[in-house]
Specification:
The structure is a homodimer. By secondary structure, chain A is mostly helical. Chain A is built from ten helices and five strands, in the order ααααββαααβααββα. The longest helix of chain A is centred in the middle third of the chain and has 15 residues. The mean pLDDT of chain A is 84. Chains A and B meet through helix 1, helix 2, strand 2, helix 5 and strand 3 of A and helix 1, helix 2, strand 2, helix 5 and strand 3 of B. Chain B binds a DNA duplex through helix 4.
Amino acid sequence: MDHSKRTSDLVEFFKVLGEPNRLRIVGLLAQRAYTVEQLGAALGVGVSTVSHHLTRLAGAGLVSARSESYYNLYSLKTSALSDMAKTLLAQAQPVRPESEQELSDYDRKVLATFTTSDGRIKTFPMQERKFRVLLRHILPSFSHGVRYTEKRVNEILSKYNDDTARLRRWLVDFGYMAREGGGGKYWRVDEREASAG
Amino acid sequence: MDHSKRTSDLVEFFKVLGEPNRLRIVGLLAQRAYTVEQLGAALGVGVSTVSHHLTRLAGAGLVSARSESYYNLYSLKTSALSDMAKTLLAQAQPVRPESEQELSDYDRKVLATFTTSDGRIKTFPMQERKFRVLLRHILPSFSHGVRYTEKRVNEILSKYNDDTARLRRWLVDFGYMAREGGGGKYWRVDEREASAG
DNA sequence: CGACTATTTCTATAAGTATCGAAATACTTC
DNA sequence: GAAGTATTTCGATACTTATAGAAATAGTCG
């Protein structure tokens, strides 16, 4: 079973459920199968409207129909709902900052040595190359084009190590962040400039 | 934490996510915080449009904002997504037929004695009163106003007991279902008529 | 306080769609 | 095959809303 979906499918799924009568239909079909006329009576709308809604629900894979004598009996495909729940839960776990995915073996090894499992920095390596790995590990917590107050910078850095003052100065010294003379504002420096520093 | 929601809140939640650019915003904010201008550049739309979308996302409890120097930094409230996932999973389990909720202590005791935990009928009681409890236990599987073929009736009854032929005749004899003379079609009888039978 | 910046609010427009009633279709029954 | 039933499709209308641009607001910096 594949829980991944194209973005357009996701949009369609939400759009289909984002209409009061369709959501009521889903609620009714969760209990038992209904005919089009029964649904119309329950909702207080015409059968053509119900038919329209059922078409959209079926298009999103939320309902299925079977024929029974005169009638078409519609029922809920509960698997569609549970699949979507799993997709939502996956989204709910924020992507681990850019790192992780594209890290070299070397970087991964350095991080394993000098950080805890939750990403905090245990000790600072002496070698500059390893040191920069740690600084780049921190960097994704800052957005490009945003001017941070010193207070806010410290708040963010405190997630990684208690010595926020030294971390802050190092980020500037190694060219990853810049500091404004007067106002005490900081911002993230463009990648190329930083690696040149 | 309360995972229940009013229906109108649910509709709003889905409606908010059922728009391509808003869903893209959620995807971006799942990775890090963004300013309004950054989002506008990423999506290729004007800032006023982004602001509008963020207002709706915030209204559904999906994003929060904090002020930083010039900027408002928006971030995703992942708890909203996981709460919704739980709500969806709850819906995915079909409600146990009308029973359960409104059963008398007597009915519950009878069902406990003569049915298995998954609702199948183990043996048939001799007393008519208890017997009717079992038949009413089956009844919610049939919709009002629908004419079922005998084949379909047997399919449904087979969920409760292998002796579908006897079950089917009993339902008719006790006045819960009616049978058409010629075509062999069955339908559920109105409650009041049935209890009079 | 005055200059400047990001964001929000306002206004108007265009696109999408929920709804109904009528006509067309599909299927059952006799 | 003809009559009857449920459902779908079609056509028209009303309502919602995504969008951009301009004006108003809120905040920062010097």
